Structures
1.
Amino acid sequence: MEIQKPALAGTLESTDAQVSVEPFAHGIELSIESSVMNQYGRQIKATVLETLERLGVKNAKIVVIDKGALEFTLKARVECAVFRSVGTSEKNIPWGGLVK
Amino acid sequence: MISRPKPQKNRLRRTMMFMNAQKPGLIKDAYIYGSDSIILDLEDAVAENQKDAARFSLYHALKNIDYGNTEVIVRINGLDTPHWQEDIRCVVAGGADGIRIAKCESAKDVKLVEEHVLAAEREFGVEEGRTILMAALESPLGIMNAYEIVTASPRMFGCAISGGDFRKSMHVQIVKGGIEMLAARGQMLLAARAAGVQCFDTMFPNIDDMDGFQAEVMQNREMGFDGKSIVSPKQIRFVHETFAPTKKEIAYAEKLIRSFNEQADAGVGVYTVDGKMVDIPFFEDARRILALAKACGVYEENL
């Protein structure tokens, strides 16, 4: 998927994460801010990068503000932000396919 | 692959607790409170511009959280919105046990949902017929059509009245004693019992008014409801205690069943127990009470 416009998903509430994506020309630029950075920073990074790879996102600038989200919540927020940026978040989501 | 056991139409549903499907902090441990069912809500709890995000969140929650014996129902958006079709795809693909149809008004509504559920089961390789349905009746028309609604599909396991919307359409407020919804509750109960499905009362919105809540729950039980929608874990315990058969009811049911077996062996159909006439319907009801007592964990014998 190709990031087409800036998009945001998630909240800053506890156990949630806010993920924003925007178009970028040179690969993936990821920045993470987390309330549990020391313990889980590496895991958060791995989950975000895996999710982007699964969605076929090769170029994007991504900012994650994590408030202690579980792994599947983080995935859900990244996916929603990417689908929103492409304008296809409302219908015919490939549940169990690209989204899993 | 769906790891949850196949949903059962008939099971214990004393409490059905609403949870906002968009809030990860809520849904991640929804099952620990011990309500019989949880209702993950895609409808009123989720803002119009977050419906898509709620589905992503819901899908992963369904796939990742072990809800154990807690039944997982999802309330989908109304059929007059642009959201319900994708809601159904998400819910079926995620493997929820069932769907609560919001603002249901006719058999046609149920059949439309059923058609889309079946299509989603085929699309996502889910066993056909697995996903069960219930209707929320929120308008006078829904109540008038309760019987055709609950008999519209073999997937239907019950119906519930939604007090908020219903009272607005009737131009009434909550009244102590419940007279404002007496006719609607009664009519819905008749329809559900006639169809052999379960019947649930509306949630009680004022979480801090425990006296008002308890009075309503006791009335629910006296009227014959199977359970109640709830909005807070602190409402669970009282409902579970109130809907469980009392010691006295259990003792009487046991006595009936024992005496019935003796009388039947002797060729007697109608007779008296404790000075009251009893016959076969009493016996069937006694069986029901003991089964309910067992399910509620307050009875362990095998009669």
2.
Amino acid sequence: MTDAVSIRQDILSKKTTATRVAERFLSRLAAIDPKVRAFLSVNKDAALAAAKKVDEKIARGEKTGLLAGIPVAVKDNLCTTDAPTTCGSKILENYRAPYDATVVRRLREEDAVIVGKTNLDEFAMGSSTENSAFFTSRNPWNLQCVPGGSSGGSAAAVAAGMAPIALGSDTGGSIRQPAALTGTVGFKPTYGRVSRYGLVAYGSSLDQVGPFGRSVRDAALVTQAISGHDPMDSTSVDQPVPDFQQLERDVKGLRLGVPKEYFGAGLDPEIRASVESAIAALTAKGAVRVDVSLPMTEFGIAAYYIVAPCEASSNLARYDGAHYGHRSKEYGDVIEMMSKSRKEGFGPEVTRRIILGTFALSSGYYEAYYNRALKVRRRIKQDFDKAFESCDVIVGPTSPTPAFPVGAKAGDPLSMYLCDVYTVATNLAGLPGISIPCGLTSAGLPIGLQLQGRVLDDLGVLKAARCFERELSLSLPWPSLT
Amino acid sequence: MAIDRKTVEKVAKLARLQLTPEELDRYGGQLGAILDYIAKLEKLDVSGLEPLAQAVDTHNVFRADEPRPCLSRDAALQNAPEKAGDFFIVPKIIE
């Protein structure tokens, strides 16, 4: 198995064909996915047809796109016209999107080969895929463990070599946390860098689409393909897209901000040691360690679990049983039709967040909860602004723990929420953030290192991540799939 | 602080979720536990701070008010649970 950049080179230099590559990944997928369960749907015919088109283009000597012939897995909350888009929810079980998400359109325009749609926590709410209405995906490194979430299917697909790259979405850590737990690279670009058109909305001021890959180079390649202004998303940033493939920079002078709050209680000691030694390895090569403080870190989860559910309660009001999605079999008036359809269609975590958000926005509680959370969000952003006065990127662990066993946190919503302690603030402040592999625990589970950068400094974050990747020269084995 | 059944019932009604009494109590208990955790925000002095709804600068986006191609009726109706001709069918709303 190879990385996306090499696959593309091999196809363009006619060492192989897009069809052969697609067949190879599809056959690995068929062999492995019954164990990992990363995919909600696989579209073999569409994938082979897309690959054939790439081969024909090459045979005719035509110009091909950035992702020519590269198999891609797509999270199932991104709209695709040629496959279901379920969001891991019963309420959209039979939904067929009438349009492609902008990122999906861009994948097609760049000649990618979409192999299937990946599992997720229902409506991207969760950190394990256990909230999927259909099944729980497994971590390829230990099949008893979760792959993280919510983009757990995409992470597992890449980790297990069923697709070299994948798309996910990140509202509070949903790309970076599963990347950390599966030993993959997961990048959340700056809010607005990538169009959200056709990404099923969860928390609209926080949601961002981004890539998974097995190298920083692959993540950068996908970011190049999907970034840019989109008239269909008025929050997409109208700024030129830099050349994300110019990734090499000197480690010398790279200022690494290390917040003491990221290394406090609750952090697994092996993760702490691994991240600390990665930082030391870079400083030994000339990077500058800068101790910074992010005093709002301990308030991030609390602010996030007001802001995100409030936005969710509004966004998910559209599932009314009238226009699309599940409608209850029996009902009297229209209110009952909606209330029963929604009750039957949404799982417990989604219901919980709708209730929480509706409560926090309701008359008498708005000031105390929603407005206060938005003021704390301002403080969180100010924290980052101050820290970035003295450093280029902020370095720390991605997740406080490695992958945990299926069921370990299922009964306690709050303990699941705390998985995102290092990742939610990135979204609240709109920053780019990446998780890269940093080592393995003694139990053989991957450890993720997170880098966060300034708004719109996506390239700076990718370059810094590439420095870590290069200097650590970490070569993780393929997961054992047992 | 568990949230009482009446409050959860009111919120569930606002959110159009038909919940059983057991579910109201269960979600009320869980909502209370989450709000207890969120209460830590009260420790912070937020006076003088402007609420931040969007972290990256956003601005109004205008375009000419002219008809453009859009989703066809058939495409818009393709997922309708019940439809007739060009319409979504729902229970009668006005007596």
